[in-house]
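Ops channel
N.P.: pipeline sanity check, posting one input/output pair.
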C-alpha cells in the first residue's frame, strides 16, 4: 500500500521531470524527422551516428548532474543549507575543468571516435560535419548538467521544465529553418543543437542568479571547508563510480550503434529512429528515477528508514505502471510512429520489422531506471557499478552468441542488459539498506 502523501511527493517530482525529459527528447526526434524529410538515408544515418558520438562522449560526464542531485538532496534531508553553495561550487569547478580538457582533446577525439564507430563513405563525411560543429557546445552541456542537478536536488523541477520547453521550442524552430528552409542538411541540425544548448545555459544561469545560489557558491569557493579532504574524497569516490558506470552504459550504446552501422545505412537509419523512440520512453520513465534520487537522498540524509522504504516502493510501483503503459502504446502504434520519421521505403520497412523490440524495452528497463535513482540517492554508487559491470558482461556475451540473428540479435542482447541490471540491483538492495540505516 502506497500512502497518498508518498504518491504526492513522487509525482510532484516525477511529473515535471518526465515532461522535462520528454522536451529534451524532442530535439533528437525533431532532428531525425527534419533530416528524414530529405529522403537521404546516408544523411539520416550520419545524424544518427554523430548524435551517438556526442552521446557517448558527453554522457560519460552525466555524473555531474547525478552526483549534484544526490549531494544536494542529502544536504536538504539533514537540514544543512550551508552545503548547497559548496556542492554547487565544487561541481561547477569540476565541469569547467572537464570542459577545458575536452576542447584541448578535440582533434584526437573526433577522428578516433568516428574510427571506433566504423563510419565510412558519405555517412562518415556527414557525421564528421555534425560532430565538428556540435562539439563546441560540450562545455556548455557540462555546465548545464550541474545547474539542472542542483535545481532538481532542491525540488525546483518546474524551473528546469520551463527552461527545457523554451530551449527545445527554439531548437525545433531552428531545425525547420536551417534544415528544411535553408537546406543546410546535417550542418543545420548541428547548429540548431548548439544554439539551443547555449540558450538553455543562459536561462538556467538566470534562475540560479535570481535565487542567490551563485552568491552562495562564490562565497563557498573561498572557504577552506569547501575543499576539505574528506568532502573532496567523498565527491571523488561518488563521481568515479558514476563515471565508470556511465562509461559502461555508453560503451553498450556505442556497440549498439557500431553493430547497426555494420549492417548498412538502412539498418543504421532504422535503428536510429527506433533508438530515438526508446530514448523518449527512457526519458519519460526517468522522471521516477529523479523522484527516487531526491526522496531517497533526503531520507538517507535524515536517517529515516520508513521514508526510504516508502520512496523505494512508491517509485517502483508508479514507475512500473507507467512502463507498462508506454510498452502498450509502442506495441499498438510503434511501427506507425517509427515509419513517420522517414520517407525512404526501405527504412520504413526496416523500422516495422524491428518495432516489437521497441515495445519490450520500456517494460524491461523501468525497474533498472528507478533503482538507479535509489542507489544514487543513497550514495551506493559502488554497488550500482558492480551490477552494471555484470550486465555489461552478459550483453557482450549475447552479442557474440546471437550474432547469427543479425539485427534482431543486437536488439535482444540490448534488452537483456536492462533485465540483468534490474535483477542485480534488486538482489543487493536489502543488504545495503540494512547497512546504511544501522550505521545512522
Amino acid at each position: 500500500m502506497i500512502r497518498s502523501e508518498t504518491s504526492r511527493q513522487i509525482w510532484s517530482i516525477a511529473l515535471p521531470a518526465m515532461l522535462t525529459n520528454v522536451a529534451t527528447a524532442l530535439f533528437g526526434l525533431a532532428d531525425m524527422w527534419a533530416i528524414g524529410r530529405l529522403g537521404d538515408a546516408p544523411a539520416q544515418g550520419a545524424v544518427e551516428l554523430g548524435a551517438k558520438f556526442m552521446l557517448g562522449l558527453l554522457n560519460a560526464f552525466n555524473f555531474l548532474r547525478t552526483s549534484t542531485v544526490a549531494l544536494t538532496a542529502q544536504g536538504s534531508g539533514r537540514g544543512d543549507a550551508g552545503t548547497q553553495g559548496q556542492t554547487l561550487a565544487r561541481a561547477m569547478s569540476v565541469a569547467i575543468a572537464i570542459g577545458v580538457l575536452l576542447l584541448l582533446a578535440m582533434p584526437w577525439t573526433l577522428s578516433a571516435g568516428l574510427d571506433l564507430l566504423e563510419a565510412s563513405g558519405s555517412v562518415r563525411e556527414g557525421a564528421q560535419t555534425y560532430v565538428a560543429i556540435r562539439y563546441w557546445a560540450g562545455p556548455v552541456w557540462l555546465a548545464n548538467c550541474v545547474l539542472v542537478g542542483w535545481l532538481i536536488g532542491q525540488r525546483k523541477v518546474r524551473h528546469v521544465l520551463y527552461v527545457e520547453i523554451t530551449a527545445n521550442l527554439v531548437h525545433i524552430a531552428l531545425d525547420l529553418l536551417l534544415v528544411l528552409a535553408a537546406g543546410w542538411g546535417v550542418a543545420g541540425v548541428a547548429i540548431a543543437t548548439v544554439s539551443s544548448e547555449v540558450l538553455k545555459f543562459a536561462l538556467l544561469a538566470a534562475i540560479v542568479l535570481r535565487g542567490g545560489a551563485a552568491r552562495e557558491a562564490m562565497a563557498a569557493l573561498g572557504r577552506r571547508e569547501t575543499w576539505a579532504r574528506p568532502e573532496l574524497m567523498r565527491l571523488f569516490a561518488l563521481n568515479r563510480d558514476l563515471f565508470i558506470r556511465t562509461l559502461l552504459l555508453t560503451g553498450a550504446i556505442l556497440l549498439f550503434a557500431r553493430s547497426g552501422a555494420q549492417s548498412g545505412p538502412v539498418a543504421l537509419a532504422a535503428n536510429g529512429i527506433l533508438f530515438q523512440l526508446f530514448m523518449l520512453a527512457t526519458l519519460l520513465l526517468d522522471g521516477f528515477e529523479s523522484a527516487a534520487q531526491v526522496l531517497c537522498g533526503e531520507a538517507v540524509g535524515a536517517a529515516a528508514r520508513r521514508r526510504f522504504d516508502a520512496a523505494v516502493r512508491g517509485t517502483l510501483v508508479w514507475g512500473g505502471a507507467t512502463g507498462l503503459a508506454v510498452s502498450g502504446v509502442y506495441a499498438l502504434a510503434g511501427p506507425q510512429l517509427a515509419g513517420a520519421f522517414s520517407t525512404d521505403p526501405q527504412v520504413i520497412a526496416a523500422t516495422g520489422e524491428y518495432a516489437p523490440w521497441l515495445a519490450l524495452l520500456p517494460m524491461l528497463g523501468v525497474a533498472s531506471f528507478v533503482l538507479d535513482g535509489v542507489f544514487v540517492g543513497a550514495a551506493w554508487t559502488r554497488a550500482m557499478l558492480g551490477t552494471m559491470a555484470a550486465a555489461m558482461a552478459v550483453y557482450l556475451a549475447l552479442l557474440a552468441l546471437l550474432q547469427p540473428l543479425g539485427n534482431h540479435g543486437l536488439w535482444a542482447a540490448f534488452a537483456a542488459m536492462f533485465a540483468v541490471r534490474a535483477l542485480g540491483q534488486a538482489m543487493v538492495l536489502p543488504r545495503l539498506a540494512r547497512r546504511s540505516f544501522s550505521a545512522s
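N.P.: looks fine end to end. The chain has one domain: 4-438.
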